[in-house]
Design goal:
Helices cover 53% and strands 0% of the residues. It is an all-alpha fold. It contains seven helices and no strands. It is globular.
């Protein structure tokens, strides 16, 4: 019921997600990254500067030649205003969940 309330997958509570194929999840990430950046009219130069990487590195992410570290994934998701679950293909719901928007519930209570 918690996963339904928070609109996230149950495996998010247990950090036990294993995609069927690593290549599939990397492809989804690359496609979503490129589409989100393009839809928001953000150039590779601009996004790469904001997250502290080179334009070439961002290009590698968008073509599935390599995958970012967790820190860079978080920076990308924050910059594009989407959840990590959406960016990595774990959900098709791109909305962010903000704990501080639910009255009476803080991060310490989750």
């Amino acid at each position: 019921k918690l996963s339904q309330f928070f609109n996230i997958s149950i495996d998010s509570f247990f950090w036990d997600y294993n995609p069927k194929k690593k290549e599939d999840s990397e492809f989804v990430f690359a496609e979503r990254l490129k589409a989100l950046r393009s839809n928001k009219n953000i150039g590779q130069d601009e996004l790469s500067a904001k997250i502290g990487i080179s334009r070439a590195q961002l290009s590698y992410y968008e073509t599935s030649k390599c995958v970012p570290s967790m820190g860079k994934l978080i920076a990308i998701a924050d910059e594009l205003n989407v959840s990590l679950d959406y960016l990595t293909g774990r959900t098709d719901d791109f909305k962010l969940f903000h704990v501080n928007l639910i009255p009476g519930i803080g991060k310490e209570k989750l």
